[in-house]
Design goal:
mainly alpha; two-stranded antiparallel sheet; 2 strands; about 10% strand
Length: about 100
């Protein structure tokens, strides 16, 4: 899907379905797409969709800028699964590494 279609699709969604995430900042979109495609190819080869074995998330943000937004891109992983992954990671980062998770 082209970026202009993604933006229109995003704007049509209800706030609950947006998960607080706008389309990737135009300044980073082409480079993040190239990084994501390269990582996906490297980790999953020619596999597409449900045939992939590795989910990938790239998050990029301006260093030192506490007000800037974080740009997020994945190789098709369900965003609700990513929310669960992030919650598990935060729990681990906050000093509870003995907990087991599925992420």
């Amino acid at each position: 899907m082209r970026e202009s279609h993604r933006r229109r699709d995003f704007e049509k969604r209800s706030p609950a379905d947006r998960l607080g995430d706008a389309p990737v900042d135009q300044a980073y979109h082409a480079r993040m797409t190239a990084v994501m495609q390269t990582l996906d190819q490297f980790m999953n080869g020619e596999a597409k969709g449900n045939d992939r074995k590795v989910g990938i998330v790239v998050m990029m943000f301006p260093l030192g800028d506490v007000t800037g937004r974080c740009n997020y891109m994945s190789n098709g992983v369900n965003r609700r699964d990513i929310v669960n992954l992030m919650k598990e990671m935060i729990t681990r980062f906050e000093g509870q590494p003995e907990q087991e998770g599925k992420a």
